[in-house]
Amino acid sequence: MYAACNNAGNTKSTNDSTAVTSAKDTTVEVVATHSTIAPASTDITMHPEYAKTLARFAYTWGYPMVNMLNRKNTLSKAPQPGLLGGVLPAAPTGRIAMLHDYIDPGQTFIACPNQDVVYGLGFFSLDDQPVVIQVPDFGSRFFVYALYDARTDQIGEIGQPYGTKPGFYLLKGPNWKGNVPAGITGVLTSPTSLGNCIPRVFMDDTPEDRAAIQPLINQITVYPLSEFDGKMKTTEWKNAPIIPNPNAGNGGAETKWVIPEKFFDELGTVLETVPPLPGEEALYSQLKSLLAVAKRDPAIQKLITNEAIAMDKSLVKDFIQWKYNGKPAGNNWNRSQNNAEWGFDYFNRAGTSRSNMFDNRPNETQYFYTDYTASGEKLHGKSNYKITFKVLPPVKGFWSMTLYNKEHFFYPNDFKRYSLGTKNKTLQKNADGTLTLYAGNKNPGKDKESNWLPSPNEDFSLYIRAYWGEAGITDGSWVPPVVEKY
Questions:
Q1: CB atoms < 10 A from the CB of 24, how many?
Q2: Model-level pTM?
Q3: Pair (110, 220) in one structural domain
Q4: Residue 236: is it exposed, middle or buried by C-beta count within 10 angstroms (0-12/13-18/19+)?
Q5: What is the distance between the alpha carbons of residues 179 and 177, in angstroms, rounded to a whole number?
Q6: Would you say residue 294 lies in a domain?
Q7: Which domain holds residue 217?
Q8: Which of 30, 57, 358, 484 is the most exposed, having the fewest neighbouring CB atoms within 10 Å of its CB?
């Protein structure tokens, strides 16, 4: 919490009570320093209001990491790589499972999925044993392996935007001390032992591309370092086993990964296994103090649990509204900010953890989202809307616009259509070269049907993805389209 203020590198600090320096002997700077930081007290009678203050911050700060921890603990129970409930990739710790097509539209494990890519998913304990990430030759096809640490920050760079070569990449934890064998193409280090990998591989919505992508998908795998033999491994993911899901169903909302009544029990695991960022040491000390006091004082334990429950029903509940995610981008849209590179942006980290977990980092993807028309009216299926792109999102990869229901999932419809964009080959442009898409519960007519996203007859939202953006996306000058009634 205490830092010496350096003047262009000319300040020299000591462990004395003051430090005096001047490179040119023209100024004298006096800086108070401390050799140590006293730990927070744990044997105190903590004032209830102080405990409540800490508890409220702790719930916001720790929500994403408890979210990640519980996903890992649940999905890693899979006995073998396969499809949990037949819809979501799941695998034992240290391995990965892949889909072979777009994600099932009925899944509710993860909010805001897309139907532009084929996904994979796996969790790792990287201090126990590193993993080998196998990357086939994707040619010109867009791909990215998003690697996440326990904070939901991305780590490493594997994908087309980075010019990644085919091969074998070792992902290790911060405390692993073993030897890297010959044949490893590159080494990546996670700052936390808990790691996660979500490959994304673009696929056109055509039978031809579904067939063409299968040999590539089948070479995507992750496995413990002990199994590395330098040979490309293949799995027929189309034949992945179905793993029964004992926790299916949450009323149409996302699986509840953070239970407020259990939060402070699980926060202790986070504080012990996720090292603080530089500057977070005092925060960790305070939160550990809170947990220590609560452990011996049932009244404080009950109080902070009640605060977590209240926060879940207020702040966390409201994070599903897009106005609380990212920053304004024009025409009543917001765009993502600091996605998967959160640092100390605890607000957006928590909001994204609730509304659309596992963003890609900004240079890989920019996200634009709205619940409103350009004039400020809430989007609702009782009305029909048109969305005209004067300029399509400028990308090197691909773009899409997805329609989500109020819980940020797909709306089942006869067309089995949930998004439109680069993957679709039947979109009809206007005579002037612009593109108008339509959204609403009512079919806009045969001449517009190919450009229509069916909506539920209730509130819904729109969500634009721009993968591997060019100027306009990267510099923030591209403005999302006007959404208006018609």
A1: 6
A2: 0.90
A3: yes
A4: exposed
A5: 7
A6: no
A7: 81-240
A8: 30
CA dist 287 and 375 (Å) reads 44
Per the structure, the count of domains in the chain is 3
Rounded to whole angstroms, how far apart are CA atoms 51 and 302? 11
Are the C-beta atoms of residues 386 and 484 closer than 8 Å to each other? yes
Q: Is 124 inside a domain boundary?
A: yes
* Distance of alpha carbon 376 from alpha carbon 458, whole angstroms: 17
Check residue 314 and report its DSSP letter: T
Calpha distance 160→338 (Å, rounded)? 21
Strand bridging mode 82-84 / 88-90: antiparallel
Confidence of residue 336 (pLDDT cuts 50, 70, 90): very high
CATH number, residue 202? 2.60.40.1610
467 with 142: CB under 8 angstroms? yes
**What is residue 440's three-state secondary structure?**
strand
Backbone angles phi, psi at 331, to 5 degrees: 55, 30
Percent of the chain with pLDDT over 90: 89
Q: Per-residue pLDDT for 462 more than 70?
A: yes
CA gap 239, 99 in Å, rounded: 10
Tokens 């304004």 belong to residue: 328
In a domain, 164, yes or no: yes
- With respect to residue 478, please indicate whether it lies within any of the assigned structural domains: yes
Residues in the chain: 486
Which residues face 125 on adjacent strands?
A: 194
Nearest to 147 by CA among 167, 172, 178, 168: 172
